[in-house]
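Reading a protein record of the kind used here takes little practice once its layout is understood. The reader may check this reading against the record printed directly beneath this paragraph.
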Amino acid sequence: MLLADNWKDYKILDMKNGMKLENWNNILLSRPDPQIIWDSNHSDLWNNVNATYHRSKTGGGSWEYNKKTKERWTVKYKDLTFNIKLMGFKHTGLFPEQAVNWDYMIDKIQKSNRKIKVLNLFAYTGGATCACAYAGADVVHVDSSRGMVDWAKENIKSSNLEDRYVRFIVDDVIKFVQREIRRENKYDAIIMDPPSFGRGANKEVWNIEDSLYKLVDLCTEVLSDDPLFFLINSYTTGLSPKTLENILFLTVNKKNKGIISSGEIGLPMENSNLVLPCGIYGRWEKDE
């Protein structure tokens, strides 16, 4: 398991009974997580929570504000700055565990010693976009939600990366890739963080079981002749890291022989040996 253990502005303080206690730059949040099926003896740590997310038995949920909390604030990861706000479905606009992937991307791009063009699909609020732009890559950022794309623009600005080339696209990712094939545009690196289920900008239906392999295979047609990496991240319950590895082997590696790896990513708990599993990844990378 890869651990996102280089944070200073984010920490998991405790985990118990389906909830995690997080410190987001001195804002304490209590949020549910289905992986936490154990108890804890650190009840005193939960006394100063700013906000708690409660799930509803009928679906969704809502935030309870235990003390006055900022509507939005920022957290830093190394030289990157991200805007945080509490969203309707327990999210904050950032997945801190993804820092392990940001570090990977930055390292690969900076060591390539050439201009890298990156395609970021299902790009959300742009954590990976910021990381790649910071490393010196040109980035095309695609997401079907205009609100998320606007948020990503704010993160680019907060990270002082406005002078970097980032093209923001609000579109269905499959339709966008199909157009890029017709335009004969190529990318040296592709990142995707597909949801389990979703709808595109024009109500196109996405189902990961039916659509992921087809999309990855389609993306091989926009890879350059000398690709650097191809990264798939997933939070879909029941999907094995080996499944992502198999997809990359049958698609990307068919045209470009490289190194394929997969596994889990996680977040460590402060002052503890406990680790919270937070999703899976599959990587194809150029064999140097």
User: Anything to note?
Assistant: The first strand starts at residue 2 and ends at 3. The mean pLDDT is 94. Residues 86 and 92 are 5 Å apart (CA to CA).
